[in-house]
Each structure stands twice: as C-alpha cells, then as structure tokens.
Amino acid sequence: MPDFKKQAAENLAGWQKALADYQNLQKEHEKKLTNLKTFLSLDIVSQLLPIFDNYKIALNHIPEADKKQAWAIGLEHTFKLWESFLNEQGVKEIEALGKKFDPEYHESISQVEDENIADQEIVEVKQIGYSYQDQVLRPTKVIINNLS
Using one digit for the tens of pLDDT, what is the confidence trace for 110-141? Predict the structure, then answer.
C-alpha cells in the first residue's frame, strides 16, 4: 500500500519549488523589461543631447536688444521645456569647471600650464557632459591645467 502522506509531501515540495521558480522568473522578466525601457530611453535622450546643446548655443547668440522680443521669449520657454524633459528622465549635467579632472566623467581635449591654478583642475568646459544616475551618457569635454 502506497504511503499517501509521503507522496503528498513530495508533491507539495515540488509545487512549492515550481512556484518559487515561477516567481523568480517573473521578477527576472520584470527586471529585464525595466532595463530595456531604461536603455531605450537613454538611447533616445543621447540622440537628443546634440540638439539640446545647439539650442542652448543658439539662445546664447540672441542679440541683447532682441531678448525681450516675443520670439526670443518663446525660444527661452521651449528651452526650459527641454531642460524639464531631461530632468524628468533623470539626466543631469556633469559638473566640471573648477573641479579636479576625473577621466570617468571628463574628457581632456587640451591643456594649459598655469602656476596659479591647481594641477589637473578643469579651467574650461568645451562641451557639457551628462549622466544618468551614476552612468555617464556623454563625458564633459574640458581643458585642464597640467603642471607636470
């Protein structure tokens, strides 16, 4: 005569293992979907950054006499929408000017030699860099002081 209690315990253990495996698979699937959505969002944002940069440059070239005109004010408001969009995506500018050069966040494109400035200090930003959480989307292109 079969041992029904033993068989029931084995079936229960198998069912519990299958349930745990299924729950782990669900969590892994959700994590992969989240990572994919983040990757796609960051890819799109990375492609938009040059447009954002050029928009910013264009705003800086509006003649002072035209800055109060309706079209210039409209461009400024549109720029603020761009900034809000990037902030909502979690994208932040990488601070650089006056900071110590860090190759993880900065790309040195030139150097100067000035005894009045600390060695490896960033003296000029040529292109703003951006990060998402602690991941660099684009490094800041900088000029550094090099006393070596």
Answer: 999 999 999 999 999 999 999 988 789 999 99
- Lowest-confidence range among 39-43, 45-49, 72-76, 138-142? 39-43
The reported pTM is 0.70
> Which residue spans within the chain are E strands per DSSP?
91-93, 106-112, 122-127, 130-132, 135-138, 140-145
Do 14 and 69 fall into the same domain? yes
The tokens for 112 are 């100067």
Where in the sequence is the domain holding 28, given as residue range(s)? 1-89
- Interhelix angle 4-60/70-88, rounded to 10 degrees, is 160
Secondary structure of residue 109 in the 3-state scheme: strand
- pLDDT at position 126 is 94
- Judge contact between 137 and 93, C-beta under 8 A: no
Domain check: are 77 and 121 in the same one? no
